[in-house]
Amino acid sequence: MTKDEFIKTGLCELYILGLADEEETALVEEMLEKYPELKKDCQGVEKCIGNYARKSDKIPHWCLKKSLAQKKDTIQFVFMAIVFMLTVSLLFFYFFT
Q1: Per-residue pLDDT tens for 17-52?
Q2: Which of 36, 38, 43, 12 is nearest to 25 (CA)?
Q3: 32, 42 Cβ separation under 8 angstroms
Q4: In the chain, what is the greatest distance between 2 CA atoms, to the nearest angstrom?
Q5: Residue-range domain boundaries for the chain
Q6: Among the residues of the chain, which ranges form H helices?
Q7: What is the pLDDT of residue 31?
Q8: Residues in contact with 3: Cβ distance below 8 Å, sequence separation at least 6, in sequence order
Q9: Interatomic CA distance for residues 3 and 36, integer angstroms
Q10: What does the alpha-carbon distance between residue 18 and residue 57 come to, in Å, rounded to a whole number?
């Protein structure tokens, strides 16, 4: 496999993310030894992935926002149910004791 073919496979990205299987890991390590300039390329990819991860963890994904909104609605419903039960209990206590 040539250097360009290796770059196009995306194995470097899988390797960096820890998603490469044993065979792919062995191939990546072999290619990094065979082509030392690939190591710099992979380090650049690793840096980009790290930067993306650091930046994207500050912005909630829309699914997370939706999930949080649903949990908020559930909490509000439970709170209202508790308030209702306490009100009924107080009224019962007031009228029947």
Answers
A1: 888 899 999 999 999 999 989 988 889 888 888 888
A2: 12
A3: yes
A4: 88
A5: 1-59, 60-97
A6: 3-9, 11-17, 22-34, 36-56, 62-96
A7: 94
A8: 31, 35, 37, 38
A9: 10
A10: 19
